Amino acid sequence: MGMVHVDEVEVDMVLDDDVKDINSRLLLAKGQKIQSKHIRIFKIWGITEVCVAGNHGREKIAESDIDPETLERITEDTKNIFKHVDLSHPAIKELFRISVLYRSRHGILHTEKNIPLTNGEDVKEHSITDVKKMIAQNRIKLPEMPSTAFELNEVVADPFASVHRIAEVVNKSPSLAALLLRIVNSSFYGFPSKIDSISRAVTLIGTREITGLALGISIVNVFKDVPKDILDMSSFLRHSLACGILSRILAANKNLPQTEQLFVCGLLHDIGRLIIYQYFPDQAKTLMNLAATSDNLLYQLENSCLGGKHTLIGKYLLKTWKLPLELEDNVFYHHNPSGAHHPVKATIVHLADIMVNALGIGSSGERFVPPLDYKAWDNLGLSPGSFETTIRHATHQLAALETFFQG
Does this model's pTM top 0.85? Predict the structure, then answer.
């Protein structure tokens, strides 16, 4: 038997294992011959590969498929990245195993990056800056919400908003409309026929889903002036996209409605860091250097350096923009979801962030895997055995999305 990518599946191949969607719903049973309609169904439901009988395809990649020296080097490197978490915990143990294999296959090594301080200024001078206070007192002018995002937010708040109204708002920005159509026609959604209008996209995917996706895209585009010597914006965006996609899939695993809302939460979970990097570059450099030299987690140093964590700064921005309270809540609590008003959704974003940091997909500045909120994990009720399939689906969808956002 072997694993065959869905794009390489041929009619009359025989399944050697059940094919189930991310909600564990059976799509086609073991022993059945695959027909063209089944291939279409697999794509619609996000199935990236299936197990078929015979010598087709490839076996699942395991440690034995990787060069031993590479595996040993990546394993030691990954242990350092996981230094702030309990490797004996079942969820972390499984994530560590997957992380080592993923990093080995993609050649991802942990690299140190110490950022020089501006003008040779002393670390202590910046470490006492109260960023939270400066923002609250309007001593720093935060970016205004994009006009398209402002209108979309009003649409989201209106339960009677029509398909025509949503399409009208989105179409005011031709670049946004074009990007949305490219996304809905990609393998991220897997529709069998081309969707050629925003109205059609809204009808198929849903009002809140399309408006949420458009809202997230509009907001991310605000932050284009982050200094390149502080942050690689494409790496930040890749981290954020992966977190959004994983949040979406994990929400589907839990049978939560409006999974696109979780995509937006994941996409924007570190928006507070963008405020720090763009508006407080000297303090950001100090913070990153302190994290590197002390081997501490970045977000755990933020209070002492900035007077507040990036989660609080993100919450302040989203509140100022009058975005949905639930979005604000999930962003604010993504490092301690057991304290959230909606702990299941906040835990999903929390877990997605941990997974993305573990895999090394992009970076928001954090060098280590953040600690898992064990209480929130227990309440979530997911099995670590679902991680591998979830991550495989997410990385497949990431490949479909990231070129659109970076284009």
Answer: no
